Amino acid sequence: GTVELPVDQLLHAPAGRVAEGLAQHFQHAPLETSVNAWLLNTGKRLVLVDAGAGTLFGPTLGKLAAQIRAAGYRPEQVDDILITHMHPDHVGGLAAKGRRVFSNATVHAEKADADFWLDPAKANAAPAEAKGFFAGAVASLQPYVKAGRFAAFAPDSEVVPGIRALSAHGHTEGHTAYAVESQGQRLVLVGDLIHVASVQLQSPEVTIAFDTDEPQATASRARLFEALAQDGSLVAVSHFSFPGMGRLRQAGSGWVWVPVNYSSQVR
């Protein structure tokens, strides 16, 4: 679904930069922002990347399970769920009323992110405005942990056949991108390396309040985006306008987003 974000308050940018970028793209704050997830059929496994917000961010989100059914699949058919990071809008759809939405799936996340968000000591020590993020992560992941269906992985490892984790830390302790490769083609799902296309593509030094380590988040974005612009990989972004898929082209110190061409044909 989508959610309105006060990006003029969340983005850390020079005075006027956010308003200028939004105006250039005929946008305004609060900005209606997509929350995307992807279902990948490898031919052998059904793999979900991120699980949306569920009920954690209000009534305009939480449509993932219904959309999976509309696409011709059922939540219980999902084999693996790869989490980019454990913020509520990426894990909230995992559970409903304390039960697993994806009853036969194993959830995978980088160990550093799990160790951070699922640690009671860190939750107790967190500032008041962050405690809800910890509570959301625990409520969403705990049903899978209890069922033995959660697996933490090491950085930059192959998580399932054909899908490799790419460390992209900074937004969170263990924020992870995923590279999917098949028949000479490559798709990279970059999670929350970027949030607001109209501002951060042209000004990649701009960070967002949700970043745990802003310098590291900036460095991870620059490193991965430079490589993606050079090799022409297909890119999927969690918070670009649905479906959030396209390619990056270098433009000075920033990038231009080239969205995929829409097709109604089954390929």
What is the structure about, briefly put?
With 267 residues, this protein is α+β, with helices and mostly antiparallel strands. The protein has helices at 7-10, 17-24, 64-70, 88-91, 111-117, 120-125, 131-146, 197-200, 214-231; strands at residues 2-5, 11-12, 31-34, 38-41, 46-49, 80-82, 95-96, 99-100, 106-110, 150-153, 158-160, 163-167, 176-182, 185-189, 207-208, 234-236, 245-251, 254-259. It is built from nine helices and 18 strands.
Structural write-up:
This protein is α+β, with helices and mostly antiparallel strands. It has helices at residues 7-10, 17-24, 64-70, 88-91, 111-117, 120-125, 131-146, 197-200, 214-231, and strands at residues 2-5, 11-12, 31-34, 38-41, 46-49, 80-82, 95-96, 99-100, 106-110, 150-153, 158-160, 163-167, 176-182, 185-189, 207-208, 234-236, 245-251, 254-259. A hairpin with a 4-residue loop joins strand 4 and strand 5. The longest helix is centred in the last third of the chain and has 18 residues, at 214-231. The radius of gyration is 18 Å and the shape is globular. The two termini are 25 Å apart. 40% of the residues are buried.
Strand order of the largest sheet: 11-12-13-14-16-17-18
Percent of residues in β-strands: 25-35%
- What structural category arises from helix and sheet content? alpha+beta
Task: Give the SSE string.
Answer: EHEHEEEHEHEEEHHHEEEEEHEHEEE
User: Sheet with the most strands?
Assistant: 7 strands, mixed
Distance between the termini: 25 Å
Overall pLDDT metric: 96
Oligomer: single chain
Number of strands: 18
Total helices: the number is 9
Radius of gyration: 18 Å
**Percentage of residues assigned to helices:** 25-40%
Low-confidence stretches: none
- Spatial shape: globular
